Structure formats: C-alpha cells, structure tokens
Amino acid sequence: MTAPDPAPPAAGSPSAPDADPAPDPSPDPGGDASPNPDPDVDPNPHPHSDPHPDPDPDPDPDSGAAPRPEPAGRAGLTEFIGTIGSLISLLTAVLFYFGWSSTDAEAKALGLRDTVFHFSTSDYLLRSVDALYLPALICATAAFAALAAHRRIQRGPGRAARVLRLLRHAWAPPLLMLPLVPLHPALFDLLVPLATIAGFLLTGYARTRDSPDLRMWSLCLVVAVLALFWAVSSYAGVVGRGRAALTAATVDSAFPAVAVFSKDDLLIHGRGSCRYTITDRASAFRYRYAGLRLFHISGDRIFLVSRGWSPARGTMFVVEESEKLRVEYMSGADPRSAECPAPDQ
C-alpha cells in the first residue's frame, strides 16, 4: 500500500524551501541578464530630453568662446590704416615742432620771444610748411634709393653679404662724430643727427634681414625718431636765423606800411616814424602816426615797428583794435615816400 504524499509546509515555516520565482511572461531577449534592483525607479529622469544633445553649431560670440579669426583682407586693411595714421601723427608732430623751433630761433635773433605774439597751433604748422619742401624732397629721394638697394640685395644676396656685414656696425660713425660738434656747431649739430638716423636704420636692416628681431628694430626706430627731432631742431635754428636776417634787411621795403589814427596820444616815437596833430574839427581823431610797418597781427592785437627798426636798436609797439583807433595799410612806393614829409615832432 502506497504512503500518501506529505502535506506542503505552512507559510513562514523555517523549514520551507525557497520557491522558484514566476517566470517573466514577456522577457527581453536583448536586455541585461542582471535583474533591476528597483523596478519603480525610472532610469531616465528626463524623458523629454535628449540623452546625447547635439553641440551648438553657432556659439554665441559673447559667451566666452574663442573669437573667429579675422579675414586676411580685412586684417591687411586695418594694418595699412594704422600705419598711415601713425605716419600722419608723426608728420604733424614734426611740423609743429619745426614751426615752434624755427619761430623761437627767429624771435631770439630779433631780440624778442615767440610768446609775445601768441601764436596758435595752426600758426606754427603753417610757418613750417614752406621750409620743409627741400627736406621732404631729400627724404623721398633717399627712400626710393633705399627701396632700389633692397630689391637689388634680394636678387643677389650673396654679392651683398659683405656690405651687409659692414652695415651691421653703421651705428658707430655717428658716435665718433660727437666730439667734433664743438669745432663747428653750425655744421656738426645738423650732420650728427642725420648720420645717426641713417646709421641706426641701416644697422637695424642689416641685423634683422636674415633673422627678424622685433626688439632690435624697435630700439633702432626709437633712436632714429629721437635723432629726427634733434635734426629738425638744428635745421629749424638755421631757418629761423635766416628769416631774422631777412626781416632786419627788408623791414622798410617788404613789410606793409601802416598809418594809425587815434583819439588819444599813443606816444609812438621811433626811428623813422612821425606824428601829426589833426586840426580839422570834423575829424573824429586827433593824432595820426605814420612811418610804421606791420610786423604781426594776433587776434585784435597789432604789432608795429618803425621803418628804421633793427634788432639792435628798435622798439615794437602793440595796439589793440577799438573804436578809438583806425588803422590804414598802404601799398605802393609813392605812399611810402610821402609818409613823413614834415613831422610834427
């Protein structure tokens, strides 16, 4: 007789064996074999976001990204404009400095000071233009010669190697000329800065042609610019003293003749000037001054000298335009010859 099957153990009994889990009715054939410890947690907390977003094809330039490189044509144009602006600034500074320096030398040679005339910036610039035609022509010729020499060196660098080795020491001759300045100041005071400009520019070219060196070129350019202002000052002194000599020689014939009418006595007395008393009661003025020459006008101030004025002996008169004065400017030889036929005093 067969024994009956044992009854199943009660739930929670310690001796009950582990029951096999129910199989997944729809298993994922390609999924991970390891079970998910927490099936209620969503592995993608942002279901609407792309787990692999595409990078921004056009980042905002203001967001800190690296700027785009500037086109070659625009960069070249910017560099060209910057170079032209620098040259214009340097030229304006040179013109102003030359105008001031030449005017100062002229005024000192005449026994005056340029501050007396209250020159403006435009006055200094205009007074420098006519005297710089010759230096500008010389500089342009030197620039063309340097360009032609540079092209010749490029065509045959081997033949110019010896010359370039010598030009590496072109800075030395200007320094050797410095002790000669006291022997002839008028000559060497202009020759030394010109030699310094040429010497240091040639040195910079020879030393940086094969191996570019920005520091070497910068040093040579700084020295050349300083020597340029030295040369401008020396040349301006020569021009100013020449103008002063011409002024002293032609003050009677080349300067405009002036007659001043005044209600009050201006006490203008000088070599070659004269004063008349006007007796006509219908006249609004009582005194007339003649034999004067126009030296300069600055605003409402008129600078006058007598026709016999000289830097060694002479007086400059300054009058201001007002209702009490009338100033007449005369041209031609006849009015000049009849200026003071019978002076009052």
Would you write up a description of this structure?
The protein is an alpha+beta fold and 345 residues long. The protein has helices at 72-109, 121-129, 133-155, 161-167, 172-177, 185-208, 214-250, 333-337; strands spanning 257-262, 274-277, 287-298, 301-306, 316-320, 325-330. The chain is elongated, with a radius of gyration of 46 Å.
Keywords:
8 helices; alpha+beta; elongated; 6-stranded antiparallel sheet
Q: In percent, how much strand structure appears in the residues? A: 5-15%
Q: What is the terminal separation in angstroms? A: 179 Å
Global morphology: elongated
Instruction: Quickly count the helices.
Output: 8
Percent of residues in helices: 40-55%
Q: Round the mean pLDDT to the nearest integer and report it.
A: 79
Structural class given helices, strands, pairing? alpha+beta
User: Biggest β-sheet, characterized?
Assistant: 6 strands, antiparallel
Order of helices and strands: HHHHHHHEEEEEEH
Describe the structure concisely for a colleague.
The protein has 345 residues and is α+β, with helices and mostly antiparallel strands. It has helices at 72-109, 121-129, 133-155, 161-167, 172-177, 185-208, 214-250, 333-337; strands at residues 257-262, 274-277, 287-298, 301-306, 316-320, 325-330.
List the helices and strands and how they pair.
Blueprint: H1 72-109, H2 121-129, H3 133-155, H4 161-167, H5 172-177, H6 185-208, H7 214-250, E1 257-262, E2 274-277, E3 287-298, E4 301-306, E5 316-320, E6 325-330, H8 333-337
Antiparallel strand pairs: 1-3, 1-6, 2-3, 3-4, 4-5
